[in-house]
Each structure stands twice: as structure tokens, then as C-alpha cells.
């Protein structure tokens, strides 16, 4: 008798569990990495590259399904299809019962976009996948240039490493139960567009020039941009709202602290807070405070605590036996409470590298994400620093302040926008 | 490239105003848009739903108005309102679960049976809900699901658990066959027979699939 191969299925990793219950039209939990090439994209070649790349990333062949107690990924046979970009950036990907792939590859002129539902993986995992697609695409498109040496991708991970949940690997035990009460943070408000699309204003800067400015203030690029963001929010803040602090949520890639080859989510978020209640505040003050907060928060034992807290969700016997529908409601409430304490967010994907042979074919990268509150998404490639200011609202006052402060420092800025 | 003199930034692509300050721009557009321009998508409420909703309101209003004009003692319009609410309840579940046919069918079986028993009870128990409605709905659901699976080629994981639930639900009439209370027994007998045949077919031919599917869905 013929035996068919059983369907592969996987549990969600611990950072991913929060995403499905909190996915809706206003916040799709989708992020995009765009790669700008020099020539117009060939859709057939792109499809072939995707077909080859997905073999190396089996988890990306999954759909998200609901069980009685937990969500889970299930592998499907259907092939993911590349398509021209026809929807606003970071449009919904996961719709319950729709059973489609949790990522999408689209192209527009000379740009290849990878959009991913965040439950599947984080920026690092997505970048590995996009780099693999780019490797196949570029070496095929410019075949003549790669006659005898096909470059290799610059990450090393086996299939089981990529599929592994690093939260469980580094879990050491439950955290002592303590409840940090959420301090209400200043909220930025505004009007949304009719179809809830996000408003992207992306600045392309020179890494060298921007770094020079950060050095002038005696600090790093991340600290400088974080402080500048807080300062821009402060400029726009009504005086009566100063009783609430400005709190930024910042995801931290745990791979830099704990050994991991996982292509799934492996991050924790830290909060950077600045209080405007008393006194005058100039950029230097904010930089000093942000510098200290980063130093405090990016401590290995503190990050371990974050990690353990996320992982303990799955270890708690009572929690496990609660039906999914009730878990969903609980996680929505938790998310709602947590979001009261946040003003904005920054995610920094860091320096993107490609194998040396591929570098000249890619012009720049950009990162964008669906947002509930204004967010900066930062990445750099060669000398191009992309800072995307993403907002769910239509007004652009903070954006104006932010980029003007940068251009006043003498940094050359080119703006891209989806408006 | 376009330039904004106020913000001191260059702007890629075609823009009529500065995205930052809204001011006028200098220079020539370079046509290098990084995003395609996509018109606003208006999600309109489906016209069919609006029509059905309107008709429901008209019927309810007319029945109340008629009762008042004709000065009828009996509040028969309450029946009309209850009937329409029941239809809507069933309709809402169809819309909510529309992406999974098997799930929709199971929900309908449960909703229709419960509503029928409530109706039967509230207008003086005559037993038609358990004699006719319950067995025929269950039998119809099993047949419909098998047909849907064959015709629409539904993926095994999407229906198998629901078909099983439905077939198990179809065993309930056994209780009434034994304790009595049925006006006629042939619909119940047909229903139980269909269920038993379905369950044995499921276990014999799809046993492994059911086991795998339950493993996935019930993992804690």
C-alpha cells in the first residue's frame, strides 16, 4: 500500500505567539524589506529564484492554522507566486481560514520586495531569505559575470538550526513573578487614511556623513537617531502632554547575545524612556539620557530575563490548557495595556551585507513595517543609510522636524515616499 | 531630482509638493518612484447584505404596523421578529466562517438544531424539532459535506475533523429512538444509519489522517 508522507507542522515560537491575536486591518503585522537593483526586474527569473530559495527555507512554505489550544504552522504544497506590486505596502497577509503563504515576493520596476507576516520570522530571518533570492536572481540575470565563480551566501545555518525555536534553547527557568505597572506614555495622534494604509517617508542618507554627525555628539549612530527621534516628538508635543514620558519600544536582536542559527523570531523589546516634565531639554541632554538607558537595558542578564519571560508563556501548565479563543482575548488585552505605555518605536536592522561579488548589482535596501504608532525603520547598505519614518497618520510634522534637523547638520537627504 | 528649498532635501519620483512641509518644489522630477501609486481602496459594505438587511427591517416594521392598525390582540409580530433574528443568526455564521465550507456546515447544523428545539419548545412542544429537523439536518449535512469534498477537492485537513463531528452529532437520535418522544422514527433511523456508515468509512479509510489532524489541533 502507498503511504503518503505526513504533513509537517510546527509550533509558533514564543515571540510569534503575540502576533496572530493582534492582527487586524489597522495593524497587519507585516513588514517589508525592499531591495533596489539597477535594472528592471525580470518576473520569470524572479519566480525561478524564489522556487530555488524556498527549498532552503522549509518553514516559509507554511500556512497558519488554529488548533484548539495554540496556533501552528502547517506545510503546504502550493507554490508561492511572485507578482507585481499592486497593494499598499505591508497590506494584510494573514487572514484566518484563508490558508495562504505567510510571505509574498513582489516587484516594481527595479525593486524586489519581500513582505512577511511577523509570526513567521523577524528581520534577520527575512533578510536571510531575501539574500538567498537575490543570490539566485543576480547570478542568473548577470550570468556572463559569474561564469566560473558562483558566490556563496554569507550565513551558515543548517535546516534544523533554522527551524529551531531559540527561545526554548536558551530558556533557563521561569522569571520571579513581578508586575511592572505600565506608566502611561505620551500618545501621538492623527488622522488615518481611509484604507488604513501606512504613510512612509524614507530618507536616504550617507552613512559616513550621518556617522560624522553622531561622532560630533560623541555617541553612536543608534543613540543619536533615537535621541533625535525623541527630540522631534518633543518639538511637536503639546505642553499639557509633557506630564507623560516619551517611551520608545526597541526590538533587540537576541542573536547578538545568545548563540542562534534560527530563521524564526528571536528578539526581545526594550523600552527607552525620556521624561519632559521639568526643565529645558536640548538634544545633548536627550542623547546623554538615551546613552545611559541603552547601557542599562542592553545588559545580558536583563535580556535573559526578557527571553525567559517570553518562553515561560509556553511552559505554564495552566496557560497551556486554556482554549485558544480565550488566550486570544487575553493576549489582546495584554497588548492593549502594553501599548498604553508606548509613544513610538525604532527598529534597526543594522548593516546589511552581501557577498562581495554581488554588491555592485544592488543599489540600496529599505525596511518598512505596519505600525500602530509612528516608527523608524533603519538599515544601511554600503554607504546608503535608509531611515524610514512610518506613521499610521497622514500628518507629517514630526517627520519634517526630524529630517530638517538632519539636513541642518549638513547631511544630504533624498526622500522617497508612498504618498 | 526635485528639491525642497525649505527642508533642504532631494525628492525622488514625481511629487507636486514636499512630503515633509507641503511646500512647492524646485527642479525636475526624475521618475524614480520607489512605490507605485495605488488609489485608495474603499471597502464598501456588500450591496446584497444591505438589501437583505433593508427587507428584514421593512418586514418587521410592517408586521408591527399591521398589528397596531388591525388592533389584533395576539402579538404575532413577535414570531416574525424571532424568525428574522434566527435567519440572521444563521446568516452571520455563514459570513463569518465562509472561508471554510466544512466548518460552516457544522455550525449551521448546530445553530439550526438549537433554534428548532427552542421554537418547538416556545410554541407548545409537538416534537417536530427532534423528529424531523435534527435527523434531516444531520443527514443533509453529511451528504453535503461529502459532495463538497468530492466536487471542490477540499484539502483533507480542512474537512476531516468537521465531518467526524457532524457524523458523531448524527448519532444523537439514537437516544430519542430508545427513550421515545418521536412522532415518526424513519428520519432518525436514516440519520443514524448514515452516521454509522460515515464514521466507519472515516475510520477505515482516513484513520491516519484523523489521528494526525487531531494531534496537530489538540497540541498543548
- Total beta strand runs of chain A: 15
Order of adjacent strands in the largest pleated sheet of chain A: 10-9-11-13-14-8-15
Cα-to-Cα separation, first versus last residue of chain A: 59 Å
Share of residues in strands of chain A: 15-25%
Major beta-sheet overview of chain A: 7 strands, mixed
Beta-strand residue fraction of chain B: under 5%
| Uncertain residue ranges of chain A | none
Q: Largest interface, by Cβ-Cβ below 8 angstroms: which chains and how many residues each?
A: A-B, 53 and 35 residues
Number of helices of chain B: 7
Order of helices and strands of chain B: EEHHHHHHH
Helix content, binned percent of chain B: 55-70%
Could you tell me the mean pLDDT of chain A? 90
Topology:
The complex is a heterodimer of chains A (419) and B (220).
Chain A: E1 9-11, E2 30-37, H1 43-56, E3 62-66, E4 71-75, E5 83-84, E6 103-108, E7 111-117, H2 123-141, H3 159-163, H4 166-169, E8 199-206, H5 207-216, H6 221-236, E9 246-253, E10 267-274, H7 283-297, H8 300-315, H9 317-321, H10 324-340, E11 344-352, E12 362-369, E13 375-381, E14 384-391, H11 397-408, E15 414-417
Parallel strand pairs in A: 5-6, 9-11, 11-13
Antiparallel strand pairs in A: 1-4, 2-7, 2-12, 3-4, 6-7, 8-14, 8-15, 9-10, 13-14
Chain B: E1 2-4, E2 9-11, H1 47-70, H2 77-96, H3 101-122, H4 128-152, H5 156-169, H6 173-179, H7 186-217
Antiparallel strand pairs in B: 1-2
Helix pairs in contact in B: 1-2, 2-3, 3-4, 3-5, 4-5, 4-7, 5-7, 6-7
Short synopsis of the structure:
The complex is a heterodimer of chains A (419) and B (220). Chain A has 419 residues and is of the alpha+beta class.
Amino acid at each position: 500500500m502507498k503511504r503518503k508522507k505526513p504533513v509537517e507542522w510546527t509550533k509558533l515560537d514564543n515571540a510569534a505567539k503575540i502576533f496572530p491575536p493582534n492582527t487586524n486591518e489597522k495593524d497587519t503585522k507585516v513588514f517589508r524589506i525592499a531591495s533596489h537593483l539597477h535594472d528592471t526586474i525580470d518576473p520569470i527569473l524572479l519566480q525561478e529564484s524564489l522556487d530555488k530559495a524556498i527549498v532552503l527555507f522549509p518553514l516559509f512554505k507554511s500556512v497558519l492554522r488554529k488548533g484548539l489550544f495554540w496556533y501552528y504552522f502547517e506545510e503546504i504544497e502550493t507554490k508561492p507566486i511572485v507578482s507585481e506590486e499592486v497593494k499598499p505596502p505591508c497590506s494584510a497577509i494573514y487572514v484566518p481560514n484563508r490558508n495562504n503563504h505567510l510571505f509574498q515576493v513582489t516587484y516594481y520596476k527595479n525593486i524586489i520586495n519581500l513582505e512577511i507576516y511577523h509570526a513567521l520570522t523577524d528581520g534577520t530571518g527575512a533578510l536571510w531569505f531575501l539574500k538567498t533570492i537575490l543570490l539566485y536572481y543576480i547570478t542568473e540575470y548577470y550570468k556572463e559575470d559569474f561564469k566560473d565563480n558562483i558566490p556563496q551566501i554569507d550565513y551558515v545555518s543548517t535546516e534544523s538550526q533554522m527551524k529551531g525555536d531559540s527561545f526554548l534553547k536558551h530558556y533557563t527557568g521561569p522569571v520571579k513573578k513581578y508586575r511592572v505597572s505600565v506608566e502611561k506614555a505620551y500618545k501621538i495622534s492623527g488622522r488615518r487614511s481611509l484604507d488604513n494604509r501606512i504613510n512612509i517617508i524614507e530618507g536616504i542618507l550617507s552613512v559616513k556623513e550621518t556617522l560624522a554627525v553622531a561622532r560630533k555628539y560623541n555617541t553612536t549612530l543608534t543613540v543619536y537617531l533615537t535621541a533625535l527621534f525623541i527630540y522631534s516628538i518633543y518639538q511637536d508635543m503639546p505642553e499639557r502632554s509633557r506630564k507623560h514620558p516619551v517611551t520608545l519600544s526597541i526590538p533587540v536582536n537576541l542573536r547578538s547575545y545568545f548563540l542562534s542559527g534560527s530563521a524564526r523570531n528571536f528578539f526581545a523589546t526594550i523600552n527607552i524612556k525620556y521624561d519632559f516634565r521639568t526643565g529645558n531639554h536640548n538634544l545633548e541632554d536627550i542623547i546623554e539620557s538615551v546613552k545611559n538607558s541603552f547601557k542599562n537595558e542592553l545588559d545580558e542578564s536583563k535580556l535573559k530575563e526578557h527571553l525567559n519571560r517570553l518562553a515561560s508563556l509556553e511552559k505554564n501548565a495552566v496557560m497551556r490548557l486554556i482554549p485558544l479563543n480565550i488566550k486570544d482575548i487575553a493576549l489582546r488585552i495584554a497588548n492593549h495595556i502594553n501599548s498604553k505605555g508606548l509613544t513610538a518605536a525604532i527598529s534597526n536592522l543594522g548593516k546589511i551585507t552581501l557577498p562581495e561579488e554581488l554588491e555592485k548589482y544592488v543599489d540600496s535596501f529599505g525596511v518598512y513595517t505596519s505600525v500602530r504608532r509612528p516608527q523608524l525603520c533603519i538599515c544601511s547598505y554600503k554607504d546608503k543609510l535608509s531611515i524610514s519614518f512610518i506613521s499610521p497618520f497622514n500628518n507629517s510634522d514630526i517627520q519634517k522636524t526630524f529630517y530638517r534637523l538632519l539636513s541642518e547638520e549638513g547631511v544630504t537627504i533624498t526622500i522617497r515616499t508612498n504618498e | 531630482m526635485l528639491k525642497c528649498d525649505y527642508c533642504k532635501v532631494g525628492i525622488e519620483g514625481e511629487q507636486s509638493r514636499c512630503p515633509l512641509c507641503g511646500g512647492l518644489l524646485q527642479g525636475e522630477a526624475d521618475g524614480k518612484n520607489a512605490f507605485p501609486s495605488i488609489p485608495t481602496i474603499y471597502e464598501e459594505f456588500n450591496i446584497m447584505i444591505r438589501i437583505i438587511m433593508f427587507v428584514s427591517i421593512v418586514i418587521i416594521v410592517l408586521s408591527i404596523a399591521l398589528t397596531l392598525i388591525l388592533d389584533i390582540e395576539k402579538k404575532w409580530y413577535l414570531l416574525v421578529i424571532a424568525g428574522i433574528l434566527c435567519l440572521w443568526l444563521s446568516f452571520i455564521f455563514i459570513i463569518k466562517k465562509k472561508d471554510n465550507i466544512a466548518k460552516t456546515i457544522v455550525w449551521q447544523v448546530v445553530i439550526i438544531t438549537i433554534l428548532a428545539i427552542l421554537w418547538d419548545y416556545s410554541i407548545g412542544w409537538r416534537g417536530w424539532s427532534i423528529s424531523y429537523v435534527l435527523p434531516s439536518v444531520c443527514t443533509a449535512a453529511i451528504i453535503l459535506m461529502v459532495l463538497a469534498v468530492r466536487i471542490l477537492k477540499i484539502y483533507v485537513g480542512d474537512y476531516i475533523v468537521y465531518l467526524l463531528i457532524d457524523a458523531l452529532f448524527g448519532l444523537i437520535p439514537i437516544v430519542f429512538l430508545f427513550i421515545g418522544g418521536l412522532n415518526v422514527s424513519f428520519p432518525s433511523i436514516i440519520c443514524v444509519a448514515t452516521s454509522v456508515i460515515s464514521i466507519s468509512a472515516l475510520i477505515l479509510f482516513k484513520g491516519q489522517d484523523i489521528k494526525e489532524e487531531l494531534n496537530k489541533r489538540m497540541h498543548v
